[in-house]
Amino acid sequence: MNAEDRIERARTLYEQAVYSGDASVLANAERDLDAVEADAALARGRILHARFLNERASSGSSPAEDPAELPLFERATELYQALGDTRGQAETLFWIGCLHQVIRRDNETALPHLERSRQMAAQVGDNATQAEALRHLGIVAHMAGRLDEARERLEESSRLRREVGALPGVAANMVGLAYIAAAQDRHPDAFAILDEANAIAQAHGAHAIVRQIEQARTQL
Questions:
Q1: How far apart, in whole angstroms, are the C-alpha atoms of residue 114 and residue 157?
Q2: What is the pTM of this model?
Q3: Which of 16, 119, 168, 193 is the S-S candidate for 178 at Cβ 3.0 to 4.6 Å?
Q4: Which of 6, 78, 73, 83 is nearest to 41 (CA)?
């Protein structure tokens, strides 16, 4: 059921309660509206995160954190938990972890959120969220110098992203895999990975990823 359907059903249940005198139906209306609110909070939080990433890419330095982003994700998590929506919880937990990792540069705080997100996403078969969590768990491992673990996480994330058709995301993962290959003294592999990543990114108009690939070439 989409947001429009939920809102319309809430209106219908309101009328039913008013005209029939049966207020018990209002609990269902509230649940529908809680689901709409959770989805909207999650979507708005993602928009704020995308704005942060775009501003960072254009300026070359990290902009200030939008103070509204974390409360939006936390509110969505609270609502999804109350609704018993495991898929929604998995996604919002990922974004909370991502915020701590990417914006606040705090892997220690991010890690439990990312792990829980991965577990819950696997539980409900949400490969897209599982792939996101694995990518960022790979980044945690890479930054800690656990290169084999980082490679394994990113490769599994890429496999899942291919399954769901998120090929620009595969190219993004391959940039990380190239850095890992270089750190393991596998320099020919690193440049071969970047070549493949560039082909994927170009084919899908992923210009931001193309720029990351070009930057990686100059650094490896």
A1: 13
A2: 0.91
A3: 193
A4: 73
